[in-house]
Amino acid sequence: MDVDLVAAAAPRSDQINADDLIGGPQIVTITEVRKGNSDQPVEIVTAEFGPGRPYRPGKSMLRVLIEVWGKKSGTYVGRKLVIYRDPEITFGPSKVGGIRISHMSNLDKAKSIPLTKTRGKKELFRVEPLPDAPPTITNEQAAEIAEGISQAANRDELNEIAAQLKTFDLAVHRDPLFELWKARLAELENPQIQEPGESATTEGDSQ
């Protein structure tokens, strides 16, 4: 049994830290934006990390948020970010790593924002749009698609259904629908010469 080393190495803290993202970028959904302290004036609470571990963006990422979403933090609730660990972020002369934003929802196209890198020097920081999540499939839609899979007459029809499945968050229906899809494909590619239990007709039987 594998040990989850990323979870074991997670820092204990009252905020989201860069080391929390060693395992890779994380999509987070904003549930609240609240006032912090004088050093970190903004706290962004997320559904994924909870109110006890808010994201406290630095000045650069605050500028990104304001540039893309505006100054009214109340509109941020329900929106999503992709945050990631950037090991190149410095504190004084040392590289300590930090959190940056790579993608944001409610953004039509990529945006480049000038941010201060060092005193007197700026560089463009690029943030990408985060597409809206697909809708969750309903039980009725899953049943209708399952019926379509069972009735599919050829591989092309199954491929059309596969494309349709990609437009949904399949949730609990994912495995049953894909198993049904694969089973129907196997039936089409290996058709039975006769139905189980049905005896073949021979020349002697017809006489």
Give an overview of the whole structure:
With 207 residues, the protein is an alpha+beta fold. The protein folds into two domains: 5-129, no CATH class; 139-189. It has five helices and nine strands; from the N terminus they run αβββαββββββααα. The protein has helices at 5-8, 59-69, 139-151, 155-165, 174-189, and strands at residues 26-35, 42-46, 50-55, 80-86, 90-91, 94-95, 98-104, 111-118, 121-129. Strands 3-2-1-4-7-9-8 form a seven-stranded mixed beta sheet, with helices on one face. It has a two-stranded antiparallel ribbon with strand order 5-6. α3 packs parallel to α5. It is elongated and about 75 Å long.
Brief account:
The chain is α+β, with helices and mostly antiparallel strands.
Tell me the total number of β-strands. 9
- Order of strands, widest sheet: 3-2-1-4-7-9-8
- What is the succession of H and E elements? HEEEHEEEEEEHHH
Strand content: 25-35%
pLDDT under 50 segments (min length 5)?
193-207
List keywords for this structure.
alpha+beta, single chain, 27% helix, two-stranded antiparallel ribbon, disordered C terminus, 2 domains, elongated
